[in-house]
């Protein structure tokens, strides 16, 4: 249902950059599957580097499975999230897919300029980027505040210092138990 619009969007991004088509063209005829449960998208690279949808039961050369929990991190362009994507198959094709994922960017201003003109498009995109940065900063601040609240105000999470102190206490207790056992052994042997 969403396969055709998704592939059309990917082809638009690839064509918008130009260089990406040249990088994918050598993989002509190769098929990759992207699994994001419960959805799946299977694409075949064409001679010009664009993609076309392939049937779900098509033989694939490479596969990537994305855990739904990774989506927010991927949306925020968290590089470490890419490493958590399960991958199998043609290593060169997978490497190229991940290179594109890291480097391919949508030129929103170019697309928007067709409707609003160049200057307005640039201003809208700059405003949206500023809003995105602000949302990200606010999310980070909220996460830090919650972490502090849960470790200091309402301890729900232990700090590394608390864990180290607990481990030292357990170690002292173990030493005391060992010492007590030795005393008991001496007393039972003496008595």
Descriptive report:
- By secondary structure, the protein is of the alpha+beta class.
- It has three domains: 101 residues, 2-Layer Sandwich (Nonspecific Lipid-transfer Protein, Chain A), CATH 3.30.1050; 51 residues; 29 residues.
- It has a five-stranded mixed β-sheet, covered by helices on one side.
- The longest helix has 36 residues.
- The protein is elongated.
- The N and C termini lie far apart (85 Å).
Structure summarized in a few sentences:
This protein is of the alpha+beta class and 191 residues long. It is built from eight helices and five strands, in the order H-H-E-E-E-E-H-H-E-H-H-H-H. It folds into three domains: 3-103, 2-Layer Sandwich (Nonspecific Lipid-transfer Protein, Chain A); 107-157; 163-191.
Quickly count the helices.
Answer: 8
Which topology of the largest domain does CATH recognise?
Nonspecific Lipid-transfer Protein, Chain A
Largest sheet: 5 strands, mixed
| Category from helices, strands and their pairing | alpha+beta
Low-confidence stretches: none
Q: Note the run of SSEs as H and E.
A: HHEEEEHHEHHHH
- Helical residues, percent: 55-70%
Please state the second-level CATH architecture of the largest domain.
Answer: 2-Layer Sandwich
How are the strands of the largest sheet arranged? 3-2-1-4-5
Number of strands: 5
What is the CATH top level name of the largest domain? Answer: Alpha Beta
Q: Strand fraction band?
A: 5-15%
Identify the CATH homologous superfamily of the largest domain. Answer: SCP2 sterol-binding domain
Query: How would you describe the shape?
Result: elongated
How many domains?
A: 3
